[in-house]
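Before surveying the methods themselves, let us examine one representative protein, written as a sequence plus integers encoding its fold.
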Amino acid sequence: MKLYHLSDLHLGVESPFLGRAGHQRMVMRKLREVISRAREEDVKFVVLAGDIFDSNALSSSLVLEFLELLSEAKDVNFILLPGGGNAHREEVSGHDAYTENSLYRRLEVKSYFDRKDHLFLLTPEDPVAVFREEGMAFYGGFFDYPKTRLAEGVSYHVAVMHGAFGERPEFKEKSLKDERALAYDYLALGHYHRFKMLSNKAAYSGAFIQFEFLPYRKGASGYVEVDLSISPHPQIAYRAFEDAPRFIYFKVLSDKDLEKLKTLDFEHSYVKITGYLEDFRDDLEEIKNRYPDRIRIDEAAEIKREALIFVEALEKILEKKVPEELREEVKEVLLYGLKISSRKSDFERFLRDKYGL
């Protein structure tokens, strides 16, 4: 029994370089391809694990356009999960969460699900979808494990969860060592924006189409194919889109870095230079002039050679204190603040005294 696992489409997001419309077109195009592949391979289930829409303030026309695309594939069951419920204070559920003003509660959207027998929305009030004939059951979890009992008479149990899961309690992640995880044959996760295997039966599919800058080589777009019939653990394979845009944080601190930048696939890559040694200023300007719609350079990106050790030490601090997906943004803010600060010497003295920089 196979299923496709997608998440974090973020329809309506303002994507760098591409804008809202460009990102939306790319999502819809690749979604059509995935649905077509599912039908060709007789895959009966496509799971969308939260943050399908970037905001509950989006127009109903966009929501209905998306649902209409799904409704065309009547031989595929689509399991949708909002990007959060409203039961937990710790939820970071500001996108398409199932709150009082959720777009999923709108009459025209709700009635759409009522009319289509192959579209299923998991909510805190109705968190389970059972398919007796196929022997499958899906359970919704909102920043936590599903709270319902397992259905009887089915072979495969799949938890569809949106939120922070893993083994980093400092980031309020729910542990996969929790005995509740043992009950499921697969855990389809959404929230983090890059593909990540957490165990032999749990994975984040990552953003379907990337829309934010990520460190070099981590900005892939795609989805997960899962074969539950493989024993003793499901077969999990990530399918990356080679023609999807890649938004890359990049630093040029050596000749090797510069050569790597020059060999990027600029047909599909968009680059944000977050740091470069002053020695490479002219080289970067030349590359930027060659690809003006592909490269941005942060205002505080230039690093004096004597300040390089400071920047490297700052990165080590951030590595310990800040989640990976936020590090570059935090560093950008800190370096820019240091650049414009009227108390720059005080800040540098603090870092030296506190961390030995």
Observations:
- The mean pLDDT is 88.
